[in-house]
Amino acid sequence: MIIFFYVLVFLVAGMVKGLLGMGLPTVAVGLLALAITPAEASALLLIPSLVTNLWQMFNGPALMQIIKRLWLMMAAVCLGTLITTQWLVSSGSNIIPALLGIILMAYGCVGLLSYCLPKASTHPVVSASIGLITGLITGATGVFVLPAVPYLQALNLGKEELIQALGLSFTVSTLALGVGLYWQGGLEIIYVKESCLMLIPALVGLGIGQWIRTRLSEALFRRVFFVGLLVLGFCSSIRAIL
After folding, report:
1. How far apart are CA 66 and CA 98, in angstroms?
2. Are residues 56 and 167 in contact, defined by beta-carbon separation less than 8 angstroms?
3. Angle made by CA atoms 4, 9, 14, in degrees to the nearest 5
4. Angle formed by the axes of helices 2-20 and 24-32, to 10°?
5. Any long-range contacts for 210-219 (C-beta under 8 Å, 24+ apart)?
6. Per-residue model confidence as pLDDT tens digits over 37-74
7. What predicted TM-score, i.e. pTM, was given to this entire model?
């Protein structure tokens, strides 16, 4: 029965990712935590997360321009993730995920109240700082979204460019987390075969979510995006509290 539960989780999480360009780890880990530990859930997520992120990264209009713009941030993400992955493997604290959820909800509310948020700076120091903080949080919690997602959204990219930039950020984070888990021995607790199997429902869900997204206008997509942040933040907080 557990395998059917896994399939349902990854189908739903894939749909959320296809619609918002994010949310697969947050949704999947939140539901998987009902049956397995966070470290096991993070290991099970690696293949579906990596492949769906690669799909999202390459399925867009301006990959090379985005890489040139964000390469320093991505390098800092890798460094930060490798520094703190040992906390994810050895610690079960829920304080950080709860705080992340609250921050994400607050950002979602701000975005819904005002769609003219200040444009973020792309100065190398700012970009590298955002990347390092994102990596430190990713390594400690397995959650990729903060502060990378608010930062990328504040760059005022178009709908498809934002989705592609998120795909790049999440791909780098997933690879760095995978290296970190392997380095700390965290991949030994789950079979890679099971992670590969979960790729199928994740891709099906991704396709459904993308189909829905292509039928949304820019304005409606922004509303859905901020509502999605609010809901994902709520789920993260509730999961940590429970």
Report:
1. 31
2. yes
3. 125
4. 160
5. 210/18, 210/19, 211/18, 212/18, 212/19, 213/18, 213/19, 213/20, 213/21, 213/163, 216/159, 218/158, 218/159, 219/115
6. 766 777 788 789 889 989 989 987 789 999 999 999 99
7. 0.78
